Amino acid sequence: MAVCELMSSCLFFNDKMANMPGSAAAFKRSYCETDNERCARFTVYKAFGRAKVPPDLFPNQEKRAKRIIAAG
Ligand code: SF4
To answer: Is the predicted pLDDT of residue 17 greater than 90, yes or no?
Structure first.
């Protein structure tokens, strides 16, 4: 459980969620400020680095993250 070190630079908040402030706040509370280890984006980042994290990957898309990691 940790506050995510990527918060200031995470594409998800700096781009994808700009027009959905309510959802962004909920995701931020659940993942970024509480438990980034559960975040699909953080999982892919940890496995492969920032370049491999799809811009449109949502924090709650754990299955998609697992597929990305399995594919290498
Ligand atoms: S969406 Fe995930 S990777 Fe981005 S700041 Fe939040 S916890 Fe970190």
So the answer is: no
User: Whole-prediction pTM value?
Assistant: 0.89
Ligand 1 neighbours, Cβ below 6 Å, are: 4, 6-7, 10, 12, 31-32, 36, 39, 41-42, 59
In the chain, where are the structural domains located? 11-71
Report, in angstroms and rounded to the nearest whole number, the Rg of the chain calculated over CA atoms. 11
Query: Using 50, 70 and 90 to split pLDDT, how confident is the model at 72?
Result: confident
49: region left, alpha or beta (phi > 0 left; psi from -120 to 50 alpha): left
- Report H helices in 1-72: 11, 21-27, 40-48, 62-71
Instruction: Give the span between the Cα atoms of 1 and 18, in whole angstroms.
Output: 25
Distances in Å between the Cα of 26 and the Cα atoms of 32, 69, 70 are 10, 26, 28
